[in-house]
Amino acid sequence: MLDESAPIFSQVAEQLADQIADGGLAEGERVPSSNELAAYYRINPATAAKGINVLTDEGVLEKRRGIGMFVAAGARQRLLDERRKRFTERYIEPMVAEAGRLGIDAEALVELVRAYGHTQGGVTV
Amino acid sequence: MNMCLKVVRYHLAQRVMYVAAPWAALAFVFAVNLIIAAVTAPSQDPTKALAVIYVCFFALGILSIGRSLPFGLALGVSRRSYYAGTALFAVALAAADGLALTLLQALERATGRGWGVHLGFFRVSYIFAGPWYLTWLTSFTGLALLFVYGMWFGIVYRRWDIFGLLAFLAAQVTVVLVGAAWHSIGHFFTALSAAGLTGVLAALAAVLLAGGFATIRRITV
Amino acid sequence: MTPAISVAGLTRRYRGQLALDDVTFDIEGASITGLLGRNGAGKTTLLRIIAAQEFASAGRVRVLGASPVQSDAIAGRVVLIREDQTFPELRVCQVLRVASLFYPNWSAELAEALLADFDLPPNRRVRKLSRGMRSAVGMVIGLAARAEVTLFDEPYAGLDPVARQIFYDRLLADYAVHPRTVLISTHLIDEIAGLLERMVVIDRGAIVLDAAADDLRGSVTSVRGPALAVQEFAAGRHTCGRRQLASQESVVVIGALAALDLARARALRLSLEPLSLQQVVIHAAGRPETDVRDRTSA
């Protein structure tokens, strides 16, 4: 579930954000408490709380006093917007770099992406 | 004080060892003596086998430190409380067992000819021959003394291992030899009454108690 | 706030041998800290001194604001069941009853549940138990005591992975409801890494690393690739564990890598692999033969 690449708190935040972006956690829905997250991931509750705080600071989660943490209104859209912005850096860059290493030119690369999209049925490029 | 009582309760968890073992040993020795007395010619000499319970108390003193102290300290008990609680337990146990010995002595007297076979088991001339309260006081002091003595042995062994124990024994032998060489000490003891002897034993027990305390203060587990 | 554990300049000498050498650290309030290091590094000695089972040669130790060796200062508030704990001649249930006498926060229900979890026979004599089961008894006491300062010394010697997982889960669950200061010495770093807020690594009696566990995660990276490229990338960084095979080289780079570094590594066609906390500790305390510590940093 978690790996060594980054601090645990940011991985927890990332995974919660993923669920919100996917719609698994709907806006207005209660998110697991830090103790629930700690038990699930087998991590320190303080670390889990830090992960939640990251999302609170970004306005993705909001605190309702005495009840818990909830997904803020508009959080999903904001996460999707941000992810689109980071798409190039996260996916295109390494792909182009590897393509260059293998001698695949831009035309061929686009063609590969298009062909893959067809086999998946959903994405058309 | 509260912590001392908890230590007493800790020892009581091992009551089978502390209460039953000495009496089982004594009962066995008594039974053997009873049989011997029954089949041999009557003799009014005390058997001196009563010493077995004192030996048991010495062993219990050692055991009250040996395996029990490390676990006590693991639970956060201070050395001082552990020592005080164990000493308190020793005194209470000696008082109770001393009383039982006194009762048995009274019983031995009441059976007339010593359990019907002229057995002098709980009556020992000179030491255990006076009124009941003196018998109780002397048994109590003697049992407590040996328990406390055993505790000190246990502490010395834990702190300095076998070499410390040997040095400890050597020191005691030296004290006894020096004492024996000093002439008037023999006079002192022979002139002593049973009550006086009890007083000396009590004083000795106090010295041993202080020695054990001084040794346990820097013990490590 | 008074730190739960405060150690300053702590030194312990055994016949000229330094078991602890000027150790200084504080642990504030509720937290779970890992005490890591090789065998004989001084972990047990440190825990024993904090629990007043041993005395310091020099330095100052305060537990919950008081000197632990002061009479009953830590009674009922500190627990340390050691890996090689000597138990009295008692049955498992009796040992637990004795322990419950000394801890005002003792939870009989938790002890009961743990007993069942670990399949401990309550009527068996503790000294007759296997090594692993004896370790389990120590865990039960350490957890059920709910002591403000809970010290574990290699708590799971001889225990199987299933039992260890039970211990982690139970520790976490109980800690969430009853936070306390937990200090736990262990070799199994990767297993417990997620539970730790902080890691203190001790080697030859001295602290060689003391950091928030999450800060260390991702801060040590193994860099592998063509030797020239690796050397170019590693120049000016703290590195260790350099190894070479033909034209390939690998080196461990210490310090988190920024986005720019990642881009540069990609350009140099290097493969990066973050090291696990276990490996971080090995590099902090291990002094491997291949260690060629590069101190060329600006």
Q: Assign the CATH topology of the largest domain in chain C.
A: Rossmann fold
State Rg of chain C: 22 Å
Give the class of chain C from helix and strand content and strand pairing. alpha/beta
Broad shape of chain B = globular
What coarse outline of chain C follows from CA principal-axis ratios?
A: globular
Q: Separation of termini of chain B? A: 23 Å
What Rg of chain B, in angstroms, do the CA atoms define? Answer: 19 Å
Give me the number of helical elements of chain C.
10
Q: How would you classify the helix and strand content of chain B by structural class?
A: mainly alpha
Spans of chain B of at least 5 consecutive residues whose pLDDT stays below 50 are none
Compute the number of structural domains of chain B. Answer: 1
- Cross-sheet strand order for the largest sheet of chain C: 5-6-7-3-8-9
So, the CATH homologous superfamily of the largest domain in chain C?
P-loop containing nucleotide triphosphate hydrolases
Question: How would you describe the overall organization of this protein?
Answer:
The complex is a heterotrimer of chains A (125), B (221) and C (298). Chain A has 125 residues and is mostly helical. Chain A contains 5 helices and 2 strands; from the N terminus they run αααββαα. Chain A has a two-stranded antiparallel ribbon. The relative contact order of chain A is 0.11. The model of chain A has no long low-confidence stretch (mean pLDDT 89). Chain B is mostly helical and 221 residues long. In chain B, 80% of the residues lie in helices and 0% in strands. Chain B contains 9 helices and no strands. Chain B has helices at residues 2-12, 15-39, 51-66, 68-74, 79-110, 114-118, 132-181, 183-190, 194-216. Chain C has 298 residues and is an alpha/beta fold. Chain C is built from 10 helices and 13 strands. In chain C, strand 6 (149-153), helix 5 and strand 7 (181-186) form a beta-alpha-beta unit. Chain C folds into 2 domains: 5-215, P-loop containing nucleotide triphosphate hydrolases (Rossmann fold); 217-285, Alpha-Beta Plaits (2-Layer Sandwich). Helix content of chain C is 32%, strand content 29%. The model of chain C is unreliable at 288-298 (pLDDT under 50). Chains in contact: A-C, B-C. Chain B binds chain C through residues 3, 6, 9-10, 13-14, 17, 67-68, 70-71, 73-78, 80-81, 218, 220-221, and chain C through 48, 51-55, 69-82, 85-90, 94-95, 97-99, 101-103, 141, 145, 147.
